[in-house]
UniProtKB/TrEMBL annotation:
Protein name, as recorded: Epoxyqueuosine reductase
Keyword field: 4Fe-4S, Cobalamin, Cobalt, Cytoplasm, Iron, Iron-sulfur, Metal-binding, Oxidoreductase, Queuosine biosynthesis, tRNA processing
GO BP field: tRNA queuosine(34) biosynthetic process
EC id: 1.17.99.6
Any one of the GO CC terms: cytoplasm
Superkingdom of the source species: Bacteria
Cofactor (UniProt): cob(II)alamin; [4Fe-4S] cluster
Organism lineage: Bacteria, Pseudomonadati, Bacteroidota, Flavobacteriia, Flavobacteriales
Length: 307
């Protein structure tokens, strides 16, 4: 067995041991297909006030500018699909935010994987990324065969749907590379039809500035009156395009205790949300991604929904 195959097999079995859903590997280099797409999307201001998406344009498209001597991008998926969801009479938060902030949970595992590689393979240089750096993670995951980009622009897998996090290790060793899979959206337009704010402006293109997740998490200004009554009770993020996707009938519950919600979260009613105090907010969302909105931001969203 050649060393590339041996190292690749080791990395994939180690990723499985660490609880990752799947692992795919692609050759690091310039993302030619993504470049014009990203440029057009930014030029049309589909990033809204997410100015950070305009930064590091070149690095976003070429991981060799992020990591010296980068040769391989190892893409990893981690399941977050819960076994129970919020009660019906509630303001909703995205399922990915039910438990502890995924950045910390995944970063720890990525570092462990990199450490294992260094122990077993030798001098491996690289960096771990969890959506907080200029890396087009969905593009890399698709390139490495972990799924295809759905019409809602999320990565989709025939086996497990789309309720998973994507992360990468960009490393300076050559490995065996996977090939991209094919698109299985067909003629389905469920996500486009269901989007409450018509943010999916055409198949495979989401106008970020119209997305409920953008309004409830990223936008720091007042929420626009033109969006009144269109948020479908979402107070943090939105899962509509994923909830209606036929491929998500194959989602299976995660087995990561850190992603389990605070015991009070799922039973909170609209009344509970409307009366939430800063102390309750801190207790329920202690290590959650919901802290990104801060107490004031969540309150703004809830007041907007109840008006």
């Amino acid at each position: 067995m050649n060393s590339k195959k041996k190292y690749t097999d080791f990395i994939k079995s180690e990723a499985k041991r660490l609880g990752f859903l799947s692992c795919g590997i692609s050759k690091a280099g310039f993302l030619e297909k993504e470049a014009p797409r990203l440029e057009k999307w930014l030029n049309e201001n589909k990033n809204g006030q997410m100015q950070y998406m305009e930064n590091h344009f070149d690095k976003r498209l070429d991981p060799t500018l992020l990591v010296d001597g980068a040769k391989s991008v190892i893409s990893l998926l981690l399941n977050y699909y819960p076994d129970a969801t919020q009660v019906d009479d509630s303001y909703k938060i995205s399922k990915y935010a039910y438990g502890q902030d995924y950045h910390f949970v995944i970063k720890h595992r990525l570092k462990e994987l990199l450490y294992s590689m260094q122990e077993t393979i030798g001098g491996v240089g690289g960096r771990a990324f969890v959506d907080s750096a200029p890396v087009l993670d969905k593009a890399w995951a698709a390139k490495s065969g972990l799924g295809w980009m759905g019409k809602h622009s999320n990565l989709l897998s025939k086996q497990v749907g789309s309720f998973f996090f994507i992360a990468e290790l960009i490393v300076d060793i050559e490995l065996e590379y996977d090939t991209a899979t094919t698109d299985h959206c067909g003629t389905c337009t469920a996500c486009i039809d269901a989007c409450p704010t018509q943010a999916i402006v055409e198949p495979y293109v989401v106008d970020g500035s119209k997305c409920i997740s953008y309004f409830t998490i990223e936008l720091k200004d007042n929420l626009p009156d033109s969006m009144k009554g269109k948020f479908d009770d979402w107070a943090f993020g939105c899962d509509v395009c994923q909830d209606v996707c036929p491929w998500n009938r194959f989602s299976k519950s995660h087995n990561e205790p850190l992603f389990n919600p605070h015991p009070d979260l799922l039973s909170m009613t609209k009344k509970d949300w409307e009366e939430i105090t800063e102390d309750t907010f801190r207790a329920v969302f202690k290590n959650s991604a919901v802290k990104r909105t801060k107490f004031q931001g969540l309150n703004r969203n809830i007041n907007f929904l109840k008006e």
